[in-house]
Amino acid sequence: MSSVQHLYGTPAPQPSNGSKNSTESGDAPEKLHLTSHNQYKTPRLLREDLNPNPLIQFNKWLSSALNPKDNESPIVIEPEAMTISTTTKKGIPSSRIVLLKTVDEKGFIFFTNYNSRKSKELIENPYASLAFYWREISKSVRVIGNVEKITRKESEEYFQSRPRGSQIGAWSSPQSTIVKEGQVQSIVDEKAKEFGENEKIDCPDFWGGWRIVPFEIEFWSGQPSRLHDRFRYTREEGSSGDWEINRLAP
Ligand SMILES: Cc1cc2nc3c(=O)[nH]c(=O)nc-3n(C[C@H](O)[C@H](O)[C@H](O)COP(=O)(O)O)c2cc1C
């Protein structure tokens, strides 16, 4: 019996050397093949459709993902969810999902614990890559840039707009550290008591926003037969000059 599972689509060809995919004791993962061949189809993306400023282009894409103008395009669920990749000084990468909260004239802002793994890596090596994937409309965006902490005032203002439960959560979670079962909940209970019902909760000094200031942004729009449209904007790191725009092969 084959130990290869096909999650969907037609089974991929089997290796002819009869190699085993799991051990008798069942302690190795079963090999999974994902054999779908989705045909992406969005309107063609052409050079003349692009705004010279990629942040304006991004805002256009984000707002049409949230509020499609025509009634036929689907609404994208949580288009602000983005993968952010950071690296250690040695160049070892790690990725996770965060939520984009602001796009301003300089870049992309998200909020987190400044003692978390991602923040430590951003301090060690102040560059990040973001990736958005909007499945419902077959679009993707990649951003590469250097990072900076936003001002304390900006972090405090945003913190005050968060629900009280999230404010207490920020105070209570030593993000990315090893904790005992139930430990975070008991800190939450303690902090909730400490803050009482109505007392204003200040933004912890170990919590705030990061801004990714891009020097490269790529817009990807899915097309049939993998012949996708890709455009990349680039400019020198730290420059406020014009962006160069190039079509890339899919
Ligand atoms: C949809 C989604 C949104 C998230 N948003 C955030 C966020 O905005 N900020 C954050 O610190 N973590 C967020 N997280 C949790 C992170 O993915 C991650 O677990 C956490 O930040 C710790 O990452 P680190 O240990 O690499 O620093 C989110 C997770 C998901 C799945």
Write the layout of secondary structure elements.
Layout: E1 4-9, E2 31-35, H1 54-66, E3 81-87, E4 93-99, E5 102-103, E6 108-113, H2 117-124, E7 127-134, E8 139-149, H3 152-161, H4 164-172, H5 183-195, E9 207-221, E10 229-234, E11 244-247
Helix pairs in contact: 4-5
Bound molecules: flavin mononucleotide.
Account of the protein in words:
The protein has helices at 54-66, 117-124, 152-161, 164-172, 183-195, and strands at 4-9, 31-35, 81-87, 93-99, 102-103, 108-113, 127-134, 139-149, 207-221, 229-234, 244-247. It has 250 residues and is α+β, with helices and mostly antiparallel strands. It has two domains: 1-37, no CATH class; 47-247, Pnp Oxidase, Chain A (Roll). The strands form two sheets. Strands 3, 4, 5, 6, 7, 8, 9, 10 and 11 form a nine-stranded antiparallel β-sheet that branches. β9 (207-221) and β10 (229-234) form a beta hairpin. α4 crosses α5. The relative contact order is 0.16. The protein binds flavin mononucleotide. Residues 81, 94, 96-99, 110-112, 116-118, 175-176 line the site of flavin mononucleotide. Residues 15-25 have a biased composition (Polar residues). This is pyridoxal 5'-phosphate synthase. Its EC number is 1.4.3.5.
Overall mean confidence score, pLDDT: 91
Number of helices: 5
CATH A-level architecture of the largest domain: Roll
The CATH H-level superfamily of the largest domain is: Electron Transport, Fmn-binding Protein, Chain A
CATH topology of the largest domain: Pnp Oxidase, Chain A
N-C termini distance: 38 Å
Strand percentage: 25-35%
**Helix/strand order, N-terminal first:** EEHEEEEHEEHHHEEE
Largest sheet: 9 strands, antiparallel
CATH C-level category of the largest domain: Mainly Beta
**What would you call the shape?**
globular
Radius of gyration: 22 Å
Query: What's the count of strands?
Result: 11
Give the uncertain stretches in residue-range form.
18-22
Class computed from helices, strands and strand pairing: alpha+beta
Helical residues, percent: 10-25%
Number of domains: 2
